[in-house]
Amino acid sequence: MKLSNIFNIFRWRNRRGERVESTDANVFIEDTAHPVLDWSESGFRLENYPESPAVGERFAFRFDLPLTSEDVFEFAAWAEVVENSNRGLAVRYLHLYEEIADRIYEVLRVLSIMNPTVLKGAIT
Fold first, then answer.
1. How confident is the model at residue 20 (pLDDT cuts 50, 70, 90)?
2. What is the pLDDT of residue 21?
3. Domain map of the chain by residue range?
4. SS3 for 33?
5. What single DSSP character describes residue 121?
6. This prediction's pTM
7. In the CATH hierarchy, which fold is given to the domain comprising 15-122?
8. What is the pLDDT of residues 74-102, one digit of tens each?
């Protein structure tokens, strides 16, 4: 096993669940939409983009996921960059209100029931 893989194991050991691939979610940073590659109860990953924040940098964002033609799951919070590499920009949520954390959990739970391709391990 590569040394970098061992460090990644330690880095992600506090992750609360597996990440779920996304096709419709966007994260808005300073009113600019960035497609979400995957997300979980603890954070999300985006493709790198010009002037993307560095590791350790914190920023405000708004998460937006259309569930139906009329319903949108969205929340706003702060995040911290934990990885900025060729794998993408991975961030963890900071200081989520309990209500938002509960809503994230419920949306992931419903997605795992409705879509068999969503990992059941995504819900802790």
1. confident
2. 80
3. 15-122
4. strand
5. G
6. 0.76
7. Thrombin, subunit H (2.40.10)
8. 999 999 999 999 889 999 999 899 999 99
